Inverse folding.
């Protein structure tokens, strides 16, 4: 009985090429969209997580303002260099405290210009971020103290301004002053949507304050906690100290934030999670559209199929034989569409991951889910109208208009 | 027709309707299509059913073909009361005993003549090789050997009706029910179809019950049953044919 049913189902698929093709297409679109979106979103998240892990587990970031969700802070007074000194002096558990302040600038060299982030730092920055200067050198104490026009540039800036030329000792313009390149940072070699770690120009903090921002503010203090000391303890010590220095009374809440690894992760993955959710929503819509496509095709063909069912019943087919045939048809079409969708999605995901420079992560779970959903749509809309028709008396099915 | 004539083999009742009625719809919209039909048809007969439009011929044929169920009354097929059978048993009765030819052909679209004729054999579970050769023979019997791979859309009305007849007789059913098989055909085609049916009746012993409007076609039958207003109004043997 099963081979006969398979024969009938395959004949029916073959003789309705267009209908079969459209059904398969709907499933292919749905399945591949979902898989691609989720794979890309997963890759982006994985990359951010990897980058965070590279920061080390003993990093604390101290930001101005209160945390209000991903990427948002409320206004509050900035830190001053005295705060940084106080932290280094009074918190024994930390090995380094690196102040920094950033400003968007356009870097110009010859005819090339590139919009990037100028970050004012001192040499502690390299310690807390575990970052090395690949060629050239760090800043000299005299340069830091006097705010000289020198800079250390990231790999992306090198690529954009110098191409294959050697950048060391050349001068680039940053806004309204020109500064000499004394070092090139080691490339981190990773980029995520909207954040390329290598896209920056480091200048002495004082240089940034004098020549770019025009104030003495410090927006971020990064702190390295000594090996074997509790980061939680360091965190609460810093909070206590800063509350005191910023004159925050007992009932007021902090107007700054000390983030440990967990919170940094939350902040940085926040954007990718929004992205993943967004991609997921887009994918769900494509799946829905694919599903509606299938549903339409199935419903449009109900009249014709009801007559077909009437003919089969009149000839002596049992209700269950007719239903089994429709089920086999739906399953064959859905699984065929699902397989094509998966293959398409795999190649598209690999290609896209390459293009966006994010890791490709094979995710069998989402393939199963997308496949099952599409198969369910195919089966439900292929099968249930048939189920209704096969219950009719043969003559009513034949009369169906 | 006399049961005592020694040369004539003894007849067994094949189908029998007893007080069959059929009401379509309900309440004020109710429409009584059959008002109490008593009809017995024996094995090997060729019966023409005639009567004005709307007199209940098709309704009666559909009940005989187990495509529809009577509102009241009994339908006996080979002494089995069809009313006591469930859906599946009625489907099996259609599969193994009945062949139906519709006025509107009812072939599967975009499906070759051969595959249409094979269809009832597939449901009977007959193996591919035998299935193909039997379907081929049935098509040859209706003169369509050269049209096996054409779809209904590529065939004329007469050819489509011959495919439908081939599909109905390929299983060698006990009864062939034909509801105005020539209703859509011209006279020459109609006579060809009648000759085919007569041949199946004589050579294969298939009982034939056929609805027709035309006296000329009814002449091929051995007996003519006249319907009027949902009742059997006349039932005569056709002297010219026997
Ligand atoms: N499905 C139906 N629903 C309602 N009335 C019907 C239906 N089929 C037939 N009838 C009515 O039953 C009567 C008998 O119809 P039918 O058996 O088709 O007659 P005939 O085949 O002799 O022309 C007609 O009055 C017709 O209108
Ligand atoms: Mg009729």
């Amino acid at each position: 009985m099963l081979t006969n049913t398979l024969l009938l189902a395959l004949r029916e698929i073959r003789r309705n090429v267009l209908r079969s093709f459209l059904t398969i297409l709907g499933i292919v679109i749905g399945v591949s969209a979902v898989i691609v979106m989720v794979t890309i979103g997963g890759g982006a998240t994985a990359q951010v997580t990897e980058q965070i892990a590279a920061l080390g587990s003993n990093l604390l970031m101290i930001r101005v303002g209160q945390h209000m969700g991903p990427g948002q802070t409320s206004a509050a007074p900035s830190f001053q260099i005295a705060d940084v000194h106080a932290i280094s002096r009074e918190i024994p558990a930390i090995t380094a405290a690196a102040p920094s302040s950033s400003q968007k600038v356009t870097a110009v060299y010859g005819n090339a210009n590139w919009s990037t982030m100028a970050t004012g730092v001192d040499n502690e920055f390299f310690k807390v971020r575990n970052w090395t200067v690949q060629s050239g050198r760090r800043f000299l104490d005299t340069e830091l103290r006097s705010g000289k026009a020198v800079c250390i540039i990231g790999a992306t800036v090198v690529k954009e301004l110098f191409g294959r030329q050697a950048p060391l000792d050349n001068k680039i313009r940053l806004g309204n002053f020109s500064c000499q390149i004394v070092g090139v940072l080691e490339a981190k070699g990773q980029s995520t949507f909207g954040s390329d770690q290598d896209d920056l120009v480091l200048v002495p903090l004082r240089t940034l304050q004098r020549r770019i921002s025009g104030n003495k503010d410090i927006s971020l203090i990064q702190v390295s906690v000594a090996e074997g000391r509790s980061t939680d303890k360091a965190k609460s010590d810093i909070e206590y100290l800063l509350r005191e220095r910023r004159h925050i009374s007992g009932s007021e809440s902090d107007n700054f934030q000390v983030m440990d690894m967990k919170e940094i992760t939350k902040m940085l993955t926040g954007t990718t999670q929004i992205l993943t959710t967004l991609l997921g929503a887009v994918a769900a819509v494509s799946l829905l559209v694919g599903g509606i496509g299938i549903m339409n095709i199935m419903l449009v063909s109900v009249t014709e199929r009801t007559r077909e069912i009437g003919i089969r019943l009149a000839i002596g087919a049992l209700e269950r034989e007719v239903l089994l045939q429709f089920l086999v048809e739906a399953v064959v079409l859905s699984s065929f569409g699902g397989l094509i969708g998966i293959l398409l999605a795999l190649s598209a995901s690999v290609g896209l991951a390459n293009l966006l420079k994010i890791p490709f992560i094979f995710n069998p779970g989402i393939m199963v889910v997308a496949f099952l959903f599409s198969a369910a749509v195919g089966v439900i809309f292929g099968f249930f109208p048939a189920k209704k028709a096969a219950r009719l008396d043969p003559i009513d099915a034949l009369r169906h208009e | 027709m006399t049961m005592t004539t020694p040369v004539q083999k003894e007849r067994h009742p094949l189908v029998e309707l007893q007080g069959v009625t059929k009401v379509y719809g309900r309440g004020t919209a109710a429409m009584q299509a059959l008002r109490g039909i008593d009809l017995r048809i024996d094995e090997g007969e060729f019966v023409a059913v005639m009567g004005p439009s709307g007199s209940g011929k098709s309704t009666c044929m559909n009940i005989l073909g187990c495509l529809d169920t009577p509102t009241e009354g009994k339908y006996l097929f080979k002494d089995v009361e069809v009313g006591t059978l469930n859906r599946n048993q009625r489907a099996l009765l259609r599969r193994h005993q009945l062949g139906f030819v519709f006025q509107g052909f009812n072939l599967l679209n975009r499906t070759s003549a051969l595959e249409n004729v094979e269809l009832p054999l597939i449901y009977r579970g007959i193996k591919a090789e035998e299935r193909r050769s039997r379907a081929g023979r049935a098509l040859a019997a209706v003169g369509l050997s050269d049209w096996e791979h054409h779809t209904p859309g590529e065939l004329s009305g007469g050819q489509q009706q011959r495919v439908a007849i081939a599909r109905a007789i390929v299983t060698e059913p006990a009864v062939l029910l034909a509801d105005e098989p020539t209703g859509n055909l011209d006279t020459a085609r109609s006579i060809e179809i009648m000759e085919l049916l007569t041949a199946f009746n004589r050579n294969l012993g298939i009982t034939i019950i056929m609805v027709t409007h035309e006296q000329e076609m009814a002449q091929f039958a051995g007996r003519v049953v006249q319907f009027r207003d949902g009742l059997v109004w006349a039932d005569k043997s056709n002297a010219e044919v026997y």
Remarks:
- Chain A has a mean pLDDT of 85.
- Chain A has 13 helices and twelve strands.
- Chain A has two domains: 2-51+266-399, 77-254.
- The interface with chain B takes residues 1, 4, 7-8, 11, 15-16, 304, 307-308, 310-319, 321, 393-395, 398 of chain A (CB under 8 Å).
